[in-house]
Amino acid sequence: MSEINLTFPDGAVKTFGEGVKPIEVAVSISKSLAKKSVSGKINGSYVGMNDVITESGDFQLITTSDDEALQILRHSASHLLAQALKRLPKFTNIQFGVGPFIENGFYYDTDNGAGNQVSIEDFSEIEAMMHKIVKEDLPILSQEITRDEALKLFAHDPYKIELINDLPAEEKITIAIQGDHVELDRGGLVPSTGWIKHFKLTSVAGAYWRGNSNNAMMQRVYGTAFWKAADVDAEIARREEAKERDHRVIGRDLDLFFTSQEVGSGLPVWLPNGATIRRQVERYITDKELSNGYQHVYTPVLSNLNLYKTSGHWDHYREDMFPPMDMGDGEFLELRPMNCPSHIMVFNHKPRSYRELPMRIAELGMMHRYEKSGALTGLSRVREMTLNDGHTFVEPEKLEEEFKSILTMMMGVYRDFNIKDYRFRLSYRDPKNTEKYFDDDDMWEKSQQQLKTAMDDLGLDYFEAEGEAAFYGPKLDVQTKTALGNEETLSTIQLDFLLPERFDLKYIGRDGLDNHRPVMLHRGIVGTMERFTAYLIEMYKGAFPTWLSPLQVQIIPVNLGAHGDYANAIQQKLQNAGLRANVETKDAKMGYLIREAQTNKIPYTLVLGDSEVDNDTVTVRKYGEANTSTMSFDQFQKLIVSDVSNYSRVTEATE
Ligand code: TSB
Ligand code: ZN
């Protein structure tokens, strides 16, 4: 009889007899450990608590306190979902794709035939059946079978057959059995259905089989599962809140922007309210740049295709570019995917001297990228965007200094907007994918090292990612999360030794020679207006600070006839002071109008009646506050001006 030697994480080695199961190993250590052990792991592969350990090696018990256990729970919950569906008469012939755990839950891809698909109306019935199977506490066991057996077992399920046929010939095929239900499965499951107590189905959405739009559209049923009921509730609440923060929802409710098929996918239309926020951001960042030595320019969104051939975009970035326009006379025009070549033209317009360096060229530059239609999201991922772009041309020895000064400026901007929830990513090339990047190992090594050194010198935390660099050089990216939980790059600073070479850029150095090559830094401080505005909408949940708010003051006369003139006069004064105020003219109850101003998240609401008119005062309600206070108009103007004065151009009224 052969023995099984198990090496535990603490280095201890124990010997067990043939046929030993993880549950027996756990019990041999302690009963309480056995009670909370979810799965065993031998040499990195899962082995179910009630399955036999067939080899010696590194052994580990995953317990409910390990993060990994949640994945096992959710993976098991997806099987539970499938089993429940199969048991319901409506879904007995349902076919299954894949059913993995995901970040905050699980899903299963299903196909029940057109017109009869799973929908949220079915959820309570499905959940009830899932709970019934939990009560049955069916043991979950793993078994190895042959390919022929597998093909027979899943003959009714064409999607599973496809998966089986795709498995390499030498691959072992295992199934997981729980009562009347069988899954094609590699393991990582709880010991029995009784373990899956707290779960909820959350949504259902169409998903192409294997993510390919040429394949059948399946119904992806999503759910979440935790060890404790309270955690399920908290997760559901968190998702509700995220939905409320979604910039597409707030954008619609507050009339900020829209997208439509009629205009075109990924081509947002900015409505007056959204345009006001954007204009404020543009004014703010332009002022900041002017005071930091940037020179603003305007360059065409459309250029000769040759410009992008010289830059290398055509070779390395073509799949993100719109197709060239054939003008019929031998000329091809291209919508620019980036502004750098245009700014390089500005630099190259004249001979340059070291005295002009660092030369900082900036523009709110519109660019077009052919993003995949499935990736387009509201304002955060679009096909036409305006980047707060800047390119600095520096002497090589000044590169690090310039990098640090850009970073300092960027962090100041983040403070002004109160953005705190971000992390730095150093984005390197993928050394295996030479096609996507400029092919010069020395240049990459050197520039990536330089970037890292600069960050280390500044003592800033970061993480590193291969395959995220621009084709021309490594980047420092500022990563943030959207309401939906996706990570995105908001701001970026990029090192570039390549484009100066491709365009043969030169400057006259301190030695009087005109053969010096500058280095370039590309940077977007607030990034694109689109993505940044989306971020602000979600961060502020639509309740913008006064300086950004589309409408700053809503003036409500108690009676339009009696108090309308006074209201108009006040509106005029505020407008003259550069503030955005509106007089409410709707004929509705006062309570309703005040509530509406709150719903629209307007920073200040003024209520004006007899007493205000007689005493030349205003009664002020600040957004989110229950109390009002009455003050002279001058006092109110001082209050609001100091509220916005950090960034906007409001001046004190002279009147
Ligand atoms: C910084 N040439 C540089 C520039 O000089 C450049 O274009 N870099 S970029 O490709 O990284 O894009 C700059 C920023 O634009 C990104 O960091 C991101 O914040 C934003 N962005 C990129 N693609 C999109 C998109 N499809 N929709 C909205 N914003 C985008
Ligand atoms: Zn650039």
From TrEMBL:
It holds the Pfam family TGS. Its EC number is 6.1.1.3. Binds 1 zinc ion per subunit. It is an enzyme of class 6 (ligase). One of its GO terms (biological process) is threonyl-tRNA aminoacylation. GO terms for molecular function: ATP binding; catalytic activity, acting on a protein; metal ion binding; threonine-tRNA ligase activity; transferase activity; tRNA binding. It comes from the Bacteria. It is found in: Cytoplasm. CDD domains: TGS_ThrRS (cd01667), ThrRS_anticodon (cd00860), ThrRS_core (cd00771). Its cofactor is Zn(2+). Zn(2+) binds at residues 340, 391, 522. Residues 1-63 form the TGS domain. Residues 231-545 form the Aminoacyl-transfer RNA synthetases class-II family profile domain. Keywords: Aminoacyl-tRNA synthetase, ATP-binding, Cytoplasm, Ligase, Metal-binding, Nucleotide-binding, Protein biosynthesis, RNA-binding, tRNA-binding, Zinc. InterPro entries: aa-tRNA-synt_IIb (IPR002314), aa-tRNA-synth_II (IPR006195), aa-tRNA-synth_II/BPL/LPL (IPR045864), Anticodon-bd (IPR004154), Anticodon-bd_dom_sf (IPR036621), Beta-grasp_dom_sf (IPR012675), TGS (IPR004095), TGS-like (IPR012676). PROSITE patterns: AA_TRNA_LIGASE_II, TGS. The keyword Membrane does not apply. Belongs to the class-II aminoacyl-tRNA synthetase family. Homodimer. This is Threonine--tRNA ligase.
